[in-house]
Amino acid sequence: MKLQQLSLFSENKPGHVIAPCRLLAREGIDIRALSLADTQRFGILRMIVSDWQKAKRLLEAAGSAVKVTEVVAVEVPDRPGGLADVLSLFEGSSINIEYMYAFPFLRGEKAVLVFRFDQPDAAIERLQVAGINVLDGGALDNR
User: Fold this and answer.
1) What is the homologous superfamily of the domain 71-141 according to CATH?
2) CB burial readout 85-117, b (16+ within 10 A) else e
3) Per CATH, domain 2-70 is 3.30.2130.10
4) pLDDT tens per residue across span 21-34
5) Are residues 126 and 90 in contact, defined by beta-carbon separation less than 8 angstroms?
6) CB burial of residue 28 (10 Å; 0-12, 13-18, 19+)
C-alpha cells in the first residue's frame, strides 16, 4: 500500500516550519508523520497527513511549493536490529531506498519506517513476502 506524502519547499530560515503547521491545524488536518531536511538555502518538510488532497490545496493557495510523492510505511518491532532486518531485504537487489524516516508507534512496541523507494511496487512485494506489515493510511490514523 502506497501512501501520499507532501513535500514542501521553503527557504531555510527561522520560522519557516510554523506557517504550514498552523494552517493545517486551523483546518483540522492532522500530521501523522513528518521529516525536515535542509540544505544551505532551502528546507524540505515532508509530511503524511490525514487529508493530503485538502492539505495540498490549502498549502498551495497559501503560496507553498508542494510536491506529492508515493511512500511506503512498514511496521517493525521497536528493538535493536529492527531497521537492519528490514534493510537486509533489499541487500543485493536493484531496489534503491532514496530516503527514509522513522517514528515510534503508540500501539505496543512497534516503530514505523517510511520509505521512498525508486521501485515501490517491487519493494512492497518483497516486504510482504518477508512477512513485514505494510501499512495503509488508515493504520496511521489508529496510533
Assistant:
1) ACT domain (3.30.70.260)
2) ebeebbeeeebeeeebbbbebeeeebbbbbbbb
3) yes
4) 999 999 999 999 99
5) yes
6) exposed
